[in-house]
Amino acid sequence: MRDTQVYEKILETAELLIQQRGFNAFSFRDISNVVGVKTSSIHYYFPTKSALAAAVVHRHAENTLAQLNALEANRKLSFEQMLLRYIDFIFNNTYKTETKMCLGGMLATEVLTLNDEVRGAVKHFLALNESWLARIIQMGIESGEFNKSNSSQELARAVFALVEGCLVLVRLFDDERYLKAIKLQALRLVK
Fold first, then answer.
1. CA 111 to the chain's CA centroid
2. d(CA 189, CA 30)
3. Enclosing domain of residue 90
């Protein structure tokens, strides 16, 4: 494998392991076994596990933002449809694939054991989601599609909290009815 392929495969594998097991439940050896390189090769790119986790979160944030911006650029969708597609996007990329949790949500549960670098990356990623939601909700308010009962930022926080909490419950109970319930509640919040 070329250097860039190894680097990307390390990030990809670490992301999956974090989403499946959590930050504290995997090692460079686990990544080594999947990628097929020595642990020293992983240390070449990422001197510490925290440096690796921060890089994983930054990469995930960039990919997520690109997909959310593409969703927002689709002017054929109403703001309600964008909100519902956001929820579907999160679920399709976590619950529906490879039995994994939301990267930000999984790391947030381990916040007391994360260093400042990783904690900062996770906060940035979660804030990115809230900001995107707030922008969509604000545009929905300005268009008259949504009701301005609260600020768009407060509504975005509430919707995001619903989504993150729902991910945990859907995974625990293996019951997608929670997804339907939060979609209804999210719409009630903004309408």
1. 15
2. 43
3. 53-190
CATH code, domain carrying 149: 1.10.357.10
Kindly report whether the global pTM for this prediction surpasses the value 0.90.
yes
Reading the block at residue 168, the tokens are 């945990």
Tokens representing 137? Answer: 């909700």
Model confidence at 99, pLDDT cuts 50, 70, 90, reads: confident
Model confidence pLDDT, tens digit, residues 38-82: 999 999 999 999 999 999 999 999 999 999 999 999 989 999 999
In a domain, 121, yes or no: yes
Sequence-distant (≥ 6) Cβ neighbours of residue 37 within 8 angstroms: 1, 6, 10
Q: Is the CA virtual torsion 69, 75, 77, 80 positive or negative?
A: positive
- Percent of the chain exceeding pLDDT 90 equals 87
**H or E element, residue 182:** helix 177-190
For residue 1, the model assigns a pLDDT of 59
How many domains does the chain divide into?
1
Max CA separation in the chain (angstroms): 57
Distance CA 166, CA 88 (A): 12
Rounded Cα distance, 49 and 28, in Å: 8
